[in-house]
Amino acid sequence: MNELISQLSDSDDVVERLSQLISVYPFNEYEYVISTLLGRDKLTLDGYYELRDDYVARNLFLYVFEISAPRGFGEAWAQGHLKELVPEL
């Protein structure tokens, strides 16, 4: 992404803004960079989909960190995962 940012005519301004950015869910530095690159036609929608799909493929279990309640974790993820590993359960 840094390579794409460097192609912007005001890349210094974007980098400066990024360094001062305050992240508040769901707005964070990645959302800012992606939306800026999309808005400036440096990242296509297909390019975004490819970037997103590659990231998700590399981080298959990242959604587990979004499960906040212990019971939710156990019921929503752990039980299903164990049943995949050991169907006899």
β-strand number: 0
Low-confidence stretches: none
Shape: elongated
Can you tell me the number of structural domains? 1
N to C succession of SSEs: HHHHH
How large a portion of the residues is in β-strands, by DSSP E?
under 5%
Mean pLDDT: 84
The whole-angstrom Rg is: 18 Å
Please describe the biggest sheet, giving its number of strands, its sense, and whether it closes into a barrel. none
Percentage of helical residues?
A: 55-70%
**What is the count of DSSP helices, taking H or I runs of 4+ residues?**
5
Q: Measure the end-to-end span.
A: 44 Å
Class of secondary structure makeup: mainly alpha
Summarize the structure in words.
This protein has helices at 2-6, 11-20, 29-39, 45-58, 70-85. By secondary structure, it is an all-alpha fold. The protein has one domain (2-85). The longest helix has 16 residues, at 70-85. The chain is elongated and about 60 Å long.
Secondary structure topology:
Layout: H1 2-6, H2 11-20, H3 29-39, H4 45-58, H5 70-85
